Amino acid sequence: MATQIYKYSRVYDWGRYYFDLCARTQFSKVTIRGRENIPTDGEIIYAPNHVAAMMDPMVTLLVNGHSPVGFGARSDIFANPIAAWALHFVRVLPLARERNGLKEVAKNYETFDDIIDCLRHGMPFCMFAEGTHRAERGLLPLKKGVFRIAKMASEELGKHVYVVPISSDYEYFFRPMGRICVTVGEAIDVGEYFRTHSEEPEANIYKDLLNMLSTRIKANLDVLPPRPCLDGSNAMGNKALRKIAAVLSIPVFIVCAILCAPIWLIAEHFIYRLEDKAFSHTVYFAVRLLFPVLWPFHSVMAYLWNRYRELF
After folding, report:
1. For residue range 165-216, what is the model confidence (pLDDT) as tens digits?
2. How far apart are CA 250 and CA 52, in angstroms?
3. What radius of gyration do the chain's Cα atoms show?
4. Distance (Å, whole) CA 264 – CA 34
5. pLDDT tens digits along 53-63
6. Where are the chain's structural domains?
7. CATH number for the segment(s) 10-218
8. Residue 167 has what pLDDT?
9. Which three-class secondary structure string do you get for the chain?
């Protein structure tokens, strides 16, 4: 039975304003570049890099404005019926990996139909082509699933289906209030590429497409400029002034730390116990959702803490 996650939901629509605001205010600066590279003459499959677990989908939503986006996630987290309902509500579909076994992988074909149905109704879908996440610079080898689905969709819908690379460049992987630059790269018209390379073996076409996608994502990683206190361009006197200003700001830091203690104490409690530290941003995001009135104090505290680490 189709999940029809593309259907309009007023609760989802209203909730997005709150979630998007929480995502934006978790960073000291959010820069989104290249929106003009999103095609308007076909359907869209976003293909971002994957370095910050569930924070990456929130960042991808910012790229798409207020419009909804469907997502794929590993199928084992859908085992709990309540979790499955919640994930479907926020427009997430299960995708099994080879490690889940052939029986589970076979269920992907049902999900492929749901993804194509999303595209048919004009809702972009997002797939993380690395198949897993890693909180490090660079890119893991990509899986061809994103291009298989794009090819199937193009053939079934008779429309252009584009794979759009997205590069999310985080200043900090494990703490909030850093900068992030999200860049939309040049789109790949998958159906057109298969048509113009029809004489080549299909395996070679997929290999070329994966190389193309990898190159376009990597081209916009590590683009954040260094902060003035770290780039070596400032005179020693200027750096000394920054240190003096930092010392004078300590009372403000202490007051804000006390006022936003529920956020950082709860978040750090869970992060300390995490085996996968790539979820650090996700934990802070989830905790901040519970305490919106404390966001200003937490933002100031986290920002100052980052500056102290850099200066001293």
Report:
1. 999 999 999 999 999 999 999 999 999 999 999 999 999 999 999 999 999 9
2. 30
3. 21
4. 34
5. 999 999 999 99
6. 10-218, 236-311
7. 3.40.1130.10
8. 97
9. CCCCCCCCCHHHHHHHHHHHHHHHCCCCEEEEECHHHCCCCCEEEEEECCCCCCHHHHHHHHHCCCCCCEEEEEHHHHCCHHHHHHHHHCCEEEECCHHHCHHHHHCHHHHHHHHHHHHHCCCCEECCCCCCCCCCCCCCCCCCHHHHHHHHHHHHHCCCEEEEEEEEEECCCCCCCCEEEEEECCCEEHHHHHHHCCCCCHHHHHHHHHHHHHHHHHCCCCCCCCCCCCCCCCCHHHHHHHHHHHHHCHHHHHHHHHHCHHHHHHHHHHHHCCCCHHHHHHHHHHHHHHCHHHHHHHHHHHHHHHHHHHHC
- Predicted model pTM: 0.92
Residues in Cβ contact with 180 at an 8 Å cutoff, skipping those fewer than 6 apart:
27, 29, 30, 31, 59, 168, 169, 170, 171
pLDDT at 102: 65
Which residue in the block uniquely carries the two structure tokens 């100052």?
304
Under a CB-based contact definition with an 8 Å cutoff, are residues 119 and 157 in contact? Answer: yes
Q: Is 239 exposed, middle or buried (0-12, 13-18, 19+ CB in 10 A)?
A: middle
